[in-house]
Design goal:
Strand 8 (211-216) and strand 9 (222-228) form a beta hairpin. Helix 2 (14-29) packs across helix 3. The chain has helices at residues 6-9, 14-29, 45-58, 75-78, 87-90, 121-125, 128-140, 156-161, 178-190, and strands spanning 33-38, 63-67, 102-103, 109-112, 143-147, 166-172, 195-201, 211-216, 222-228. It is built from nine helices and nine strands. It has 236 residues and is α/β, with parallel strands linked by helices.
Length: 236
């Protein structure tokens, strides 16, 4: 287990409260399958996935975390597991996907590791097998959360965004390229993705007391700006 799982190690911290707020807003959006991605690398998407999943499990719900970043998998490290056979194998075989998911130390939280890096990750993400996996997982778990590569690097995230119920975009404060962020949102909009929110990560705690979480209406216009508690730096 690594320090980035603040919701597990520091349950009473402001950061844990941040994720409880995000959990509540995701529930308001009424999504079963959720994709979390970023504009570029090291903006904190994987840490956001892991901590949100822990928070959902702590509320008594069952949650499956899917590491769909098959190019640079990270989540198995966060939960102290081996990568082994995972999503890349499951999408190439016609077997029950349940045989590939693994228990974590968090009650109610299961992990679908990425597996070995395949030669065709974008094609696997966009496959009929992936669609079936999302449908089956959504029936068996209260929530399914996907981690993907960043939007501006490869097409994996954009491809998966068309299949899930909602998308959250993670942006690193003082690091994200604003033009790239706008382009990332435009790409997601063009494929009909439902962007339910954006998390501003890596706020300077000395410069500002709060980071922010915005959620959007169907036209992509912010409905409300929610104050988040002070955030520690999460770069994965």
């Amino acid at each position: 287990m690594v320090e980035s799982l603040l919701t597990l190690m520091e349950t009473k911290s402001p950061s844990s409260e941040d994720f409880r707020m995000l959990r509540a807003d995701v529930r308001i959006a009424n999504v079963k399958s959720l994709m979390i991605t970023s504009t570029g690398p090291r903006e904190g998407k994987s840490s956001t996935v892991a901590n949100l999943a822990v928070s959902v499990a702590q509320s008594g719900k069952s949650v499956l975390v899917v590491d769909a970043d098959m190019r640079k998998p990270t989540l198995h490290k966060m939960f102290g597991l081996e990568n082994g056979e995972g999503l890349s194998v499951a999408l190439n075989q016609d077997q029950d996907f349940l045989i590939y998911i693994r228990e974590t130390s968090v009650p109610g939280l299961m992990l679908f590791t990425a597996g070995d890096v395949p030669s065709n990750p974008t094609e696997l993400v966009g496959s009929e097998r992936m669609k079936n996996l999302i449908e089956e997982a959504s029936e068996q778990f209260d929530m399914v959360i996907f981690d993907t590569p960043s939007v501006m690097g490869v097409m994996d995230a954009v491809t998966l965004a068309m299949m899930v119920d909602g998308v959250v975009l993670v942006l690193a404060a003082n690091e994200v390229n604003i033009e790239y962020a706008i382009k990332a949102k435009d790409l997601l909009d063009k494929v009909g993705a439902k962007i339910i929110g954006a998390v501003l990560n890596n706020m300077d705690m000395n410069a500002s007391e709060y980071s922010y979480y915005n959620y959007y209406n169907d036209e992509g216009v912010p409905n409300q700006k929610r104050k988040f508690g002070r955030r520690k730096h999460c770069n994965e």
